[in-house]
Amino acid sequence: MKRCLVILVLATAQLCAVELPTTTRSFLEKHCTDCHDAETKKGGLDLTALAFQPDDARNFASWVKVLDRVSAGEMPPKKKARPAAAELEEFKGAIQPALLAAEQKRTAAEGRATQRRLNGYEYENALRDLFSAPWLQVKGQFPDDGEAFRFNKLGDALDVSHVHMARYMSAADYAMREALSVQWNQPPTTTRRYYARDQRTLTTLNNKLQKDLSKPPGDRSTFLVLGTKAQTEIQKGQPLTVGDEDPATRDEEAVGWIASNYVTGFRYRWDGFRAPVAGRYRIRFSGNTVWVAPGNKSKRSDEEKDKTREPITVGRTQEPITVYTRNGLMNRRVGGFDLTPEPAVHDLGEVWLLANETLVPDPSRFFRSRPPGWKNPLMTDDGGPAVAFRWMEVEGPLYDPSTTAGYHLLFGDLPLVKVEGAAPGVGIPVVDSSTPRPKSGEPAEPLGEVTVDVVSKDPKKDAERLMRAFLERAYRRPVSENDVQRFLALIENRRAAGLSFAESMLAGYTAVLASPGFVFLDEKPGRLDDHALATRLALFLWNSTPDEALRARAARGELHRPEVLRAETERMLADVKSRRFEEAFLDYWIDLRKMEDSTPSTTLYNDYYLDDSLAEAALLETQLYFTEMVKRDLPARCVVDSDFTFLNERLATHYGIPGVKGIAMRRVTLSPDSPRGGLMTQASVLKVTANGTTTSPVLRGKWILERILGYEIPPPPPVAAVEPDIRGAVTIRQQLEKHRDNESCAACHSKMDPPGFALESFDVMGAWRDQYRGVSKDKPAAKGIGKNGHTFEFHYGLPVDSAGELPDGRPFKDIRDFKRLAREDDVPVAGGARADGAQPLRNAL
Predict the structure, then answer these.
(1) Using CA atoms, how far apart are residues 560 and 475, in angstroms rounded to an integer?
(2) Is 324 helix (H, G, I), strand (E, B) or coil?
(3) pLDDT above 70 for 590
(4) Tens of pLDDT along 311-336?
(5) Gap between the terminal Cα atoms of the chain
(6) Res. 441: pLDDT tops 50
(7) Measured CA distances, 476 to 113, 130, 514, 529 (Å)
(8) How many angstroms separate the CA atoms of 78 and 807, rounded?
(9) Are 109 and 103 in contact (CB under 8 A)?
(10) Partners of 303 in the beta sheet?
């Protein structure tokens, strides 16, 4: 041990032996050490104690940061004397060659990246593509991936624990049992209508059906509609439908309601349908909107009431309907359409469903009542909107060659049979139609299970044939004989222990899918070979493993040729799987995965609380906008500003943009004076940079500096944090003044606060505001009713001031002005400076 310590000390001494030129030390003493010495140590940096050890990775990173800040003109700070151009070039010339040489040496010996595993997104997609099972959902089983430089793609952050290994095995086992279930359960493709009046959850469950419509329907009740009128003549105990004896009348029978579903509960669902097997289905809904009379308590005169005695009349509105799944691992949005006053059939097209999932059409504009004392915000003295659904039609399951591809990968053409009695086998999930429907309060119908096995006349020979084929598909490099024999030995061991052929094979396959050859990237130092390049490309553009075409290119040694690499990149970007890249990239760059981390305050923002349609549209806006940038190869300035965005009616209303109708997202041209356009002013970004109660110029400003301008902000010093004043008596600008007065805080706040202040005109959900909201018993609340059915508790307080000044003195009065400054920087540059002589925005901040 002592000898080892001596060697370590000597090695460390060798690293410390590199000396900087005297002129370089003089440069630092003259321009840097006033702020970065042992006593002051701003930003945690003491240059007087920082040796020059470029062979040490941590020391290398510190000197790269120093060089970058000095080269960009960010250091010395603007208030200090600037170094002469010759002096600056001499400093850079003394450091750059040594840093470059150290980096090249390290790259040649270790490669450019730390060996890493697949992250959760990549592992899930790899299983989906391997087994041709796009419905698989396993990402949620894994611990959260670590982050380096805000992404989950670097080996330094992607650790592996025993928990990961256990979850890899359970996820792989689940995926393969799903593939067996699809092979076992292949009901014929049928087209069937599920009528609304036959759905227990829409009529009889919890005494939901309201037959007396002399008063408005309850928010958690349903009512009968025939055509566009109320059907109140059906008494207790009588059938709710004429059935098949009168098809014309049957087609007009509907069930109506006036409230929206809770995504977590879903009261208004089609419980008569459960997907018999995971796969593709084509879905259609029939229905229309209606208008519900306000009831006898209305303030209207008796004469006005007589004009609309009918409790239900023809609809007056077009209502957006969002369709969700229920009973699966999570409730998912699968489509939407606009329900009109005229009865119509609405085709969702093809959707993927898990076995046992059902569907829920949700009128997303309607309120979601929260007890106690709620009111319907859409109910007026003249009545209110409601929806009436007649039936849901399901065509499926829809089959193609990919349906059973997962099973054929595992077991080829070997037959799958049911195991009787206590014989060993594999339990697979099935939808048991004999399982009773849930009672009140039960969340979902349970799945049944069937035990199956695969019949092999020559288990040893079949095991080798199947395992070799599986490894060729699962591994992203040529398979060695040692790999094959290792997994075959495991299979034989399991068979000898008494497991069935199917169980033994699944044990071997599970080991493959948890092995380094599948979980880790196989890269050697130096130039990537074609197999490693194919893996890198697929993980980048598809968040998955290479397909057969990319593998074939790699096997032929063609992929490193520039024209081939470009052609494959174009092909992959044109593939639907490129959406995985766009969504995963935005999840981390923009933090879209954190959209649900905060909930709008029930007191300050109950007009947003429970508004899933707004949050969903905000998410889609950013995804579609980024897709447009990639597909059309738009310039980088579109990140900051543009003359278009993607909206539907809900989001356009939120933004105050007229003329957009319906639930469908579409590209919308913005007016020249619109504050929208670009990513910074999209609702998704403004939501993830707020906490649901208040906004912070610091958080938003830091987000712009780091995510848009690429400027790293160091951790804050140990000072008291700013506590938001929800009373509305003091603005956040006033509270931040004390931080700007603190010298240790001012350096960063002078950079973060200006762009953050520019965004102060947007509230926690990205709506424009001229005043802050506050809650106080001493001030009257604003008039209105929120999405949760409760009256507003907030009042409008102090005015918003979104003006500011960049550290270089350039002022802006609002976000439009701030964007203008950013747009002005989009000019040709030469020698690191703007052609017009002004500072680029990044340097100004």
Answers:
(1) 20
(2) strand
(3) yes
(4) 999 999 999 999 999 987 788 999 99
(5) 51
(6) no
(7) 18, 12, 14, 12
(8) 8
(9) no
(10) none
3-state class (DSSP) for residue 319: strand
- Write down the residue that tokens 């990319």 correspond to: 550
Tell me how far apart the alpha carbons of residues 429 and 446 are, in angstroms, rounded to a whole number. 10
Nearest Cα to Cα of residue 384 among 291, 321, 303, 308: 291
Beta strand segments in 590-688, E: 644-647, 666-669
Between the alpha carbon of residue 296 and those of residues 302, 316, 509, the distances in Å are 9, 21, 68
Question: Is it the case that residue 232 has pLDDT exceeding 80?
Answer: yes
Paired tokens of 617: 């549209």
CA distance 629 to 677: 12
Classify 818 as helix, strand or coil. helix
Q: Answer for the pair 366, 232: CB distance below 8 angstroms, yes or no.
A: no
Q: What is the CA radius of gyration of the chain?
A: 32
Task: Please give the model's pTM, rounded to 2 decimal places.
Answer: 0.87
**Residue range 620-632: average pLDDT?**
96
Contact between 385 and 315 under an 8 Å Cβ cutoff? The reply is yes
Reported as type and span, the H/E element at residue 101 is helix 85-110
Whether the Cβ atoms of residue 283 and residue 261 lie closer than 8 Å to each other: no
Token pair listed for 528: 């990537």
Preceding peptide of 372 cis, ω within 30°:
yes
DSSP string, 261-290: PPTTT-SS--TT---SSSEEEEEEEEEEEE
Look at residue 109 and tell me whether its pLDDT is greater than 70. yes
The DSSP symbol for 39 reads T
Which residue's structure tokens are 């359409």? 337
**Mean pLDDT over each residue of the chain, to the nearest integer:** 87
Nearest to 771 by CA among 802, 736, 796, 735: 796
Residue 362: DSSP 8-state: E
Q: In this predicted structure, what is the pLDDT of residue 17?
A: 45
Tokens of 273: 């349908």
Q: Other C-beta atoms within 10 Å of 457: how many?
A: 7
288's tokens: 């229309």
Q: How far is CA 600 from CA 291, 766, 797, in A?
A: 30, 12, 18
Among 286-295, 301-310, 802-811, the least confident range: 301-310
Q: Minimal CA–CA distance to 576: which of 553, 551, 536, 544? A: 544
Query: When comparing pLDDT for 23 and 762, which is higher?
Result: 762
CA pair distance 534, 568, nearest whole angstrom? 10
pLDDT at site 73: 78
Q: Strand pairing of 358-363 and 426-430?
A: unpaired
Given a cut of 60, whether residue 301 has pLDDT beyond it is no
Q: CB under 8 Å to 330, separation ≥6 — which residues?
A: 137, 140
Residue 684, Cβ density class (10 Å: 0-12 exposed, 13-18 middle, ≥19 buried): buried
Is residue 229 within 8 A of residue 312, CB to CB? The reply is yes
pLDDT of 216 > 90? The answer is no
The whole-angstrom separation of Cα 753 and Cα 731 is: 14
Q: What letter does residue 81 receive in the DSSP assignment? A: P
As a residue count, the chain comes to 845
Contact 337, 419 (CB under 8 A): no
Are 602 and 788 in contact by the 8 Å Cβ rule? The answer is yes
Mean pLDDT highest for which of 192-196, 330-334, 821-825? Answer: 192-196
Q: Which of 336-345, 348-357, 745-754 has the weakest average pLDDT?
A: 745-754
Q: Are 688 and 592 in contact (CB under 8 A)?
A: yes
Band (pLDDT 50/70/90 cuts) for residue 739 is low
- DSSP string covering 172-184, please? HHHHHHHHHHHHH
- Per DSSP, the residues of 730-754 read S-HHHHHHHHHHSHHHHHHHHHHHH
The edge-to-edge listing of strands for the beta sheet with 448-454 is 416-418, 448-454, 426-430
Look up residue 213 and give its two tokens: 């419509």
> What's the pLDDT at 442?
46
